Amino acid sequence: MRMFSDHGEEDRARIELIPMIDIMFFLLVVFIFISISLIKLDGVTLNLPKADPSSITQKPQIMNISIQKDGSIFVDKISVTLEGLQDNLEKLKTQGLQDKEQIVVSGDRESKLQRLVDVMDLCNRLGFSKLSIRTETQ
Predict the structure, then answer these.
(1) What is the model's pTM?
(2) What is the CATH code of the structural domain delimited by 57-133?
(3) What percent of the chain has pLDDT over 90?
(4) What is the rounded (10 degree) CA torsion for 113, 114, 115, 118?
(5) 51 or 62: which carries more pLDDT confidence?
(6) Inter-axis angle of helices 82-94 and 113-125, to 10 degrees?
(7) Is residue 42 scored above 60 in pLDDT?
(8) Average pLDDT score over the chain
(9) What are the phi and psi torsion angles at 36 (to 5°)?
């Protein structure tokens, strides 16, 4: 039984950490540059035609319906009843705007849920499909 081997200290296998760390940093930098370049690419690079921006004048139409705590209804800051809201929506429907009009319903946190449901049901019955409820982020 031998206590010492015939191999010298220089023949022993060992892991070199410095080159491994260099390679890992290199790979990290390569992945960062690749991810940055991918973020900026939204699609194929094109040479787009020029147009006059003043020719596009039609903006999306948004109707804001607000319901206060006491149940009163406002259409774009004008107080209306539920019947008045129905008249406004029917007027838009006769103009053929039920598919183009975006309706945003804003309700006070302490308002009755039934009032909100009444407004949404009225919009749905008259064919307004673009209906959303405005909330605050927490």
Answers:
(1) 0.54
(2) 3.30.420.270
(3) 8
(4) 130
(5) 62
(6) 20
(7) no
(8) 79
(9) -65, -40
Phi/psi of residue 65, nearest 5 degrees = -110, 120
Residue in the block written with tokens 């006491």: 70
Least confidently predicted of 43-47, 110-114, 115-119: 43-47
Domain boundaries, the chain: 15-40, 57-133
Amino acid at 60: P
Q: Give the integer Cα–Cα distance in Å for 124 and 120.
A: 6
| DSSP secondary structure, 72-97, as one string | -EEETTEEE-HHHHHHHHHHHHHTT-
pLDDT > 60? residue 109:
yes
Q: How many helices (H) and strands (E) does the chain have?
A: 3, 5
Give which of 68, 63, 73 is closest to 102, Cα–Cα.
63
Q: Are the C-beta atoms of 109 and 133 separated by less than 8 Å? A: no
Is 65:72 a contact under the CB 8 Å cutoff? no
Environment class of 80 (CB within 10 Å of its CB; exposed 0-12, middle 13-18, buried 19+): middle
